[in-house]
Amino acid sequence: MDFDFTDGQEAFRKDVRQWLERNVPDDLRGMAFASSRGDRAAVTRLRAWQKTMYNAGYVGMDWPREFGGRGASLADQIILYQEMSRAESPQLVNRGGVSMLGPTLMKYGTAAQQKRFLPKILTADEIWCQGFSEPNAGSDLANLQTRAVREGDVFVVNGQKVWTSMAHVSEWCFLLVRTDPDAPKHKGISFLLVDMKTPGITVRPLRQMTGEAEFNEVFFDNVRVPVENLVHRLNEGWAVALTTLSYERDLLTFIRHISLRNALARLVKRVRESGRAGDPVIRQKVASLWIGEQALQMNAYRSLTRILRGGQPGPEGSTAKLSWSHLDQELAQVATEVIGPYSQIAGGPAWVVDHGQWEFYTLLAQASGIRAGTSEILRNILAERVLGLPKD
């Protein structure tokens, strides 16, 4: 495994570090480890920040030049993530579009689809949500039941999606639908691009215990989608979806690590300021969290090394998510112990710790073992595909 970056990559690191130090807005700096994407005003500020990054050449860096990127290596992209973490910059608001749909359209989209959608993904002029999960099709995604029937030059879509992040502020949705109900469940699925302003779409926010509503239920009632918005071929959307999910897995390995590192850095600062740095129990807990964060980073580097050598991601995506879920919840618990009752206060009083973000972080961490793959499913994946154990 490679631990060192080249001289050229370190020069790039220096450039991006200086740019971020000069350009991250004060009202967004430091809001990265527990920031909300459920508030429209916050999303508006994050759109503007992504456009600023795009104009500087830091969005879609690893996209080929013909699609608006820089043709940079994955290593440069990881350096950018690391430096965004160091600068406490927020993540890209349209990261699902940039890191999941964009590469999928480059591989499977038509020239017209690429020309129409890719530029506005990069600038965040059009935010995308992911219409995959359903009430009875989460971990078993191939069990989806949302239907699309072709009528002339449109598909008529009926059904429901759930846990759709940012659907309430998105202009478009990349949607999985069943177009052949008689085919085996991994067959007969198609991949559509849907304008969220189309008549018949109802978005119902799901209020979380954090108080925000980033997730949504989305209902489709005779929604008419132009045939030209079909990605790849009819009934062959499962292969497209697997490509999209593979990009999600690669991205989240690094994004989760950055989020955890930001929170841990804040926690260490609070331990020192509270005078608890000499407490052997607290020191041991913080040290354990640091070791876990370093292990997560090494796992990410292992995946990066394999990819740079021309290989495919291994089980790191599942192991990273499983480890991150545990660490995220442990970190929230330790922070609550260190900060005490103040950790339960949200909002803006000057004496509230870190602008009240720990209250949000602690509540959000309760879902870490569920979102983006439940711990139970991840353990099954590792047991069956890595250890070779029989299926349950």
Protein described:
The structure is a single chain. By secondary structure, the chain is of the alpha+beta class. The chain has three domains: 117 residues, Acyl-CoA dehydrogenase/oxidase, N-terminal domain (Butyryl-Coa Dehydrogenase, subunit A, domain 1, Orthogonal Bundle); 108 residues, Beta Barrel (Butyryl-CoA Dehydrogenase, subunit A, domain 2); 146 residues, Up-down Bundle (Butyryl-CoA Dehydrogenase, subunit A, domain 3). Helices cover 47% and strands 13% of the residues. It has ten helices and eight strands. The strands form two sheets. The chain has a four-stranded mixed beta sheet with strand order 1-4-5-8. Strand 2 and strand 3 form a beta hairpin. Helix 4 runs antiparallel to helix 5 and helix 4 runs antiparallel to helix 6. The model has no long low-confidence stretch (mean pLDDT 88).
List the topology elements:
Elements: H1 7-23, H2 40-55, H3 74-86, H4 95-108, H5 111-123, E1 128-131, E2 147-151, E3 154-161, E4 172-178, E5 189-195, E6 201-206, E7 215-226, E8 230-231, H6 237-273, H7 280-308, H8 316-339, H9 357-365, H10 375-385
Computed CA radius of gyration, to the nearest angstrom? 21 Å
Q: Number of helix segments?
A: 10
- The overall strand count is 8
| Beta fraction | 5-15%
Taking strands numbered 1, 2, ... along the chain, how are they ordered across the largest sheet?
1-4-5-8
Number of domains: 3
* CATH top level label of the largest domain: Mainly Alpha
Residues in helices, as a percent range: 40-55%
Give the topology string: H per helix, E per strand: HHHHHEEEEEEEEHHHHH
Unreliable spans are: none
Query: What is the CATH superfamily label of the largest domain?
Result: Butyryl-CoA Dehydrogenase, subunit A, domain 3
What do the pLDDT scores average to?
A: 88
Distance N to C terminus: 34 Å
**CATH architectural designation of the largest domain:** Up-down Bundle
What form results from the Cα inertia axes? globular
